[in-house]
Amino acid sequence: MLKEIRVHGRGGQGSVTAAELLAHAAFLEGKWVQAFPYFGAERRGAPVKAFARVSDTPILVHSQVYSPDYVIVLDPVIHRVVDVTEGLKPDGLILFNTTRKPGEMGINGIRVGTVDATGIALELNLQVAGQPVVNTSIIGAFARATGEVKIDSVVKVVKQTWSGSAGEKNARAAELAFERLVLGPGGGGSV
Question: What's the pTM value of the predicted model, to 2 decimals?
Answer without folding.
Answer: 0.92
